[in-house]
Design a protein that fits this description.
Length: 344
């Protein structure tokens, strides 16, 4: 069985072909156009998706060595994300499924990040997390602590009340004058920095919720005040600033995971989403799991950020359940904006 996955929820146009859970191709076209604006410009993103979608799907099929008439279904991200961007993947998937007369499967982007752990690379069948597992999903748009009972039974234990963890990385990078997306850049600078040199205040919310906007503000004021004294403050301290900011974000994330351990029956801990590429977070979560005798599952680096293989595997599990959608299905920007009849 071959599934074509399509991802276009933000600023990456991606298409992948999988055979059951094995990745045959996973093509990602990023969008450099946003770099000069320091963040994603929705209108430019949708236009770039329109330019990219046909060559990206074509390349994915060619690399997989699969003809379009061999596909069993098309899975596409239908939300949450930028509506204009989602619409490109949604319309393309519908048109292609209609032409080929094959089933159409809608995928929730966040579920796809989690289910990326069920993908295999050719020639390798790796261990999978066992249900129920605890999953920290951290990306540019989301920060969620989930108890995953089944492929599609994901219970939210906590989440951010304002900025997402990836946003905190990106905004900190912007304050330091670093390019977008800032997370990988901060990660690189942090490797040679002292994480204890500066301390930034973290909001401690009760329960398992997160807040990152206070951290961003305290970082902004700290930098602004120090620049008044020394205009070269950023250049002279860039490594320690990146390491200290990264440390604060990681501490906030891991504190709640540790707290969640107390009440969870889960033995396996899973990290998902773009920020799961962060080397400091991967180390901290591995150490946390070791101390609490849990098994840790880190996604391979090429499956951390947005990609269509994770969409395809989510589509595969829905295909097995016969969960298909009609051509009238509309994209949704947030989970709460999803129409009840549209839930899958
Ligand atoms: O999952 P993703 O590709 O898109 C969303 O669904 O949002 O995540 C993108 C986010 C960006 O905020 C980016 O800065 C962050 O993931 N990111 C990182 C790293 N690599 C990507 N953050 C910290 N360290 C990294 N190495
Ligand atoms: Zn994502």
């Amino acid at each position: 069985m071959y599934i074509l996955g399509i991802e276009s929820s933000c600023d990456d146009t991606s298409a992948a072909v999988i055979r059951e859970t094995t990745i045959l191709s996973n093509v990602i076209a990023g969008q450099k156009v946003h770099a000069e604006y320091g963040g994603v410009v929705p209108e430019l993103a949708s236009r770039a998706h329109q330019q990219n979608i046909i060559p990206v799907v074509d390349t994915a099929l060619k690399r997989a060595g699969v003809g379009k008439e061999e596909l069993s279904a098309i899975a596409f991200t239908n939300g949450p994300g930028l509506l204009g961007s989602l619409l490109v993947g949604n319309s393309f998937a519908k048109a292609m499924a209609y032409t080929l007369q094959i089933p159409l499967v809608q995928v929730n982007h966040l579920q796809a990040h989690v289910l990326a752990h069920f993908l295999d690379k050719p020639g390798e069948v790796k261990a999978k997390p066992q249900f129920p597992f605890l999953c920290l999903t951290v990306s540019g748009g989301h920060t969620l602590l989930l108890q995953v009972n089944d492929h599609f039974d994901m219970v939210k234990l906590g989440g951010t009340i304002d900025d997402a963890a990836g946003e905190a990385f990106d905004k900190a990078a912007k304050i330091l004058g670093l390019p977008y997306p800032g997370g990988p850049v901060i990660d690189r600078y942090a490797k040679d920095g002292d994480p204890t040199r500066f301390s930034f205040s973290i909001s401690h919310l009760p329960g398992l919720d997160y807040s990152f906007s206070g951290l961003k503000t305290s970082f902004l004021y700290f930098i602004r005040d120090n620049l008044k004294e020394n205009p070269n403050f950023i250049e002279e301290n860039i490594h320690d600033l990146a390491a200290s900011m990264q440390h604060a974000i990681i501490k906030s994330l891991t504190d709640k995971v540790r707290k969640a351990f107390k009440d969870t029956p889960c033995k396996d801990i899973v990290l998902a989403g773009g920020v799961s590429a962060n080397s400091g977070l991967r180390e901290a979560m591995t150490e946390l799991a070791r101390r609490h005798r849990k098994n840790i599952f880190l996604p391979p680096l090429d499956l951390t950020t947005d990609n269509a293989a994770m969409v395809a595997v989510c589509g595969y599990f829905k295909y097995l359940r016969g969960e298909f959608v009609g051509y009238d299905v509309a994209p949704y920007s947030s989970d709460s904006a999803q129409k009840p009849g549209n839930k899958a």
